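Materials and Methods. Structural model of Antibiotic resistance protein. The 235-residue sequence of Antibiotic resistance protein from Rhizobium anhuiense was retrieved and submitted for structure prediction as follows.
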Amino acid sequence: MKIIFAGPSLPDATSLAGEGIRVMPPATQGDVLAQVEQGANVIGLIDGGFEYAAPVWHKEILHALSLGVAVLGAASMGALRAAECHSFGMVGIGRIFDDYRSGRLVDDAAVALTHAPSALGSKALTVPLVNVSATLDAMEDGGLLASGLRRELDDAAGAIFFKKRTWRAIVEQCAGLTEPDRPRLLAALLSNAVDQKRIDALALLKAVQEARDSRSNADLPWTLHETPFRTRPAL
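The predicted structure was written out as tokens:
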């Protein structure tokens, strides 16, 4: 059984996944464990809850790995957990994972965004910093940003709370822009926007599709120490 936890990074995951892959909403604490106990052999973690729900626990990922379950992560919560659990066998995919793994990214908030509920398609409503960086990189490489503007846009994006960060808010935060320049810059940002989270999520989906649907018998170089981590608090 193959499972993918996806939300705003890949809102159309269900239509893209194909046969044999079950798409679940963003994972919260206990969801990975539950799927392992139900027989999952391959788990792709893309999105996860973090603000109003406890996030996926590292121990449940390690438990899955200790049983030979392939666990892959990318794009959002998946990239964070993959960077943290990479040395134990979790597979990270994509630029965002690479940036966390290398230390170029250190703040969890770089992948945070606000999105519509799953019933309304999980559409992203704000822009995460990882997408801002990817967009500005592409524009800078293409010679579309004036000298010094890149830093001002980076600083502006970083100063805005993730729930309020839109391309329009970023442009409005740039004090050095003249009023006639603002609409032109906004239009350029929108037309050249890079959705790095989606790019990485699609790469993870491909990897899950190609993965063997069975548990491995690999001899791990580490031992999982049993703790009461499976115990859920009473309500």
